[in-house]
Amino acid sequence: MSVEKIAVIGAGTMGRGIAYTAILAGFQVALHDIDSEQLTRATEDMNRLMERRVQRQEMAPDDRSAALARLQITTDFKQAVEDADMVIEAVLEMMDIKVEVFAQLDALCPAHAIFATNTSTMSPTEIGAATTRPRQTIAMHFFNPVHKMRLVEIVRGLETSDDTFEIARSVATRMGKESVEVNEFPGFVTSRISCLVGNEAMKMLQEGVASAEDIDKAIQLGLNYPMGPLALADLVGLDSRLRNMQYLHQKLGETYRPAPILEKYVKAGRLGRKTGRGFYDYTSKS
């Protein structure tokens, strides 16, 4: 089956990044969110990214216009998905919300449609069980920022078919991504490692081992990470990271118990870049 029309559910950071990358790759994309302001921000972000590409002569103005013409934004769920070849869900990392979305997709999408969740930790088997087509359900874990990060983890659920996996891999390839095949286990590959490193960095910060800046600098320069784990947590969103840690703690045990400082910052509303403060203060930065 050839995928030409993709519906992306959720216009937050990941959803808009997936939609942007997909329209650049030539897909027709319907981007859905229940919040019209979120859709407006997503469109503004895509325009801004494309304008930079045009200014750097990486994209012709006509190509920018053609890419934007492939994007539809809508608050109408049925309209977004009713003729989709593939749906990529990018809503909050909460199982009850994902299950509800997939049950709705099952009722509204064409019979051939592939269902992909952008979860970074959660079970595509459990999500697929909310539908009558678990063989057509898979996880495609993109990374932030989607247009720059090369990897997509493609995670099979218990009943995911080989055809579904190959379709997901072909879509990732067309988007310019490298992919790895992962058999479902909580946290997959990257999130298990990233959450452990980030959680340990948070513990060191609360223990006074070093400042946030020096912990990140040590990891970047000493271990050759492109970004320090605390800055990365701020970018992901500390509320999202806490939900991931809580899920992994529930599934994998004490090793993944969230650092107390993470819980404290989330309770204080210090969620990272999106609120202006997390482990770093972004309010004075342009």
Biggest sheet architecture: 8 strands, mixed
Read across the widest sheet, the strand sequence of neighbours is 3-2-1-4-5-6-7-8
Count of strand segments: 8
Tell me the series of helices and strands, N- to C-terminal.
Answer: EHEHHEHEHEHEEHEHHHHH
Report how far apart the termini are: 45 Å
Number of helices: 12
Poorly predicted tracts of residues: none
Pathway: Lipid metabolism; butanoate metabolism
Protein name: 3-hydroxyacyl-CoA dehydrogenase
Organism: Alicyclobacillus fastidiosus
Family: Belongs to the 3-hydroxyacyl-CoA dehydrogenase family.
Describe the structure.
- The chain is α/β, with parallel strands linked by helices.
- The chain has twelve helices and eight strands.
- Strands 3-2-1-4-5-6-7-8 form an eight-stranded mixed beta sheet, sandwiched between helices.
- Helix 7 links the parallel strand 7 and strand 8.
- It starts with a strand and ends in a 19-residue tail after the last helix.
- The model has no long low-confidence stretch (mean pLDDT 96).
- Keywords: Oxidoreductase.
- This is 3-hydroxyacyl-CoA dehydrogenase.
Secondary structure layout plus pairing:
Layout: E1 5-9, H1 13-24, E2 28-32, H2 36-55, H3 61-69, E3 71-74, H4 77-81, E4 86-89, H5 95-108, E5 114-117, H6 124-128, E6 137-141, E7 151-156, H7 162-174, E8 178-183, H8 190-207, H9 212-223, H10 229-236, H11 238-252, H12 260-267
Parallel strand pairs: 1-2, 1-4, 2-3, 4-5, 5-6, 7-8
Antiparallel strand pairs: 6-7
